[in-house]
């Protein structure tokens, strides 16, 4: 938040060369917002569920002496961690500017 409840501090691409103190109109891409949300929230949950299902299946079929529920929990956490690592590696290659909001106009103030 900014100086009061009506202002907000946001990193954005300054397309119009606005100055500090200017009131501006900021736009963000809905497509990029939804893609980011999916990658950060849904993909890890999918990884967690896949890990749990694989762990339970392996725990029931293999005679490792480990409870299938414990095996399910361990592989679920392992898949979750691997998913976060893969997301981190994938996002390092993306251009930050593609996902940043843009300042498109000055507001009358």
TrEMBL record:
The entry's keywords: Membrane, Transmembrane, Transmembrane helix
Transmembrane parts of this sequence: 38-58, 70-90
Domain of life: Bacteria
Annotated Pfam families: RseC_MucC
Region forming the signal peptide: none
Protein name, UniProt field: Positive regulator of sigma(E), RseC/MucC
């Amino acid at each position: 938040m900014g100086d009061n409840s009506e202002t907000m501090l946001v990193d954005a691409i300054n397309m119009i060369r606005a100055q500090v103190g200017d009131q501006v109109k900021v736009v963000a891409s809905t497509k990029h917002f939804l893609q980011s949300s999916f990658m950060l929230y849904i993909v890890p949950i999918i990884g967690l569920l896949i890990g749990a299902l694989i762990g339970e299946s392996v725990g029931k079929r293999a005679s490792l002496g480990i409870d299938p529920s414990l095996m399910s929990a361990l592989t679920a956490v392992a898949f979750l961690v691997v998913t976060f690592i893969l997301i981190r590696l994938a996002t390092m290659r993306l251009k930050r500017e593609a996902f940043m909001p843009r300042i498109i106009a000055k507001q009358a103030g």
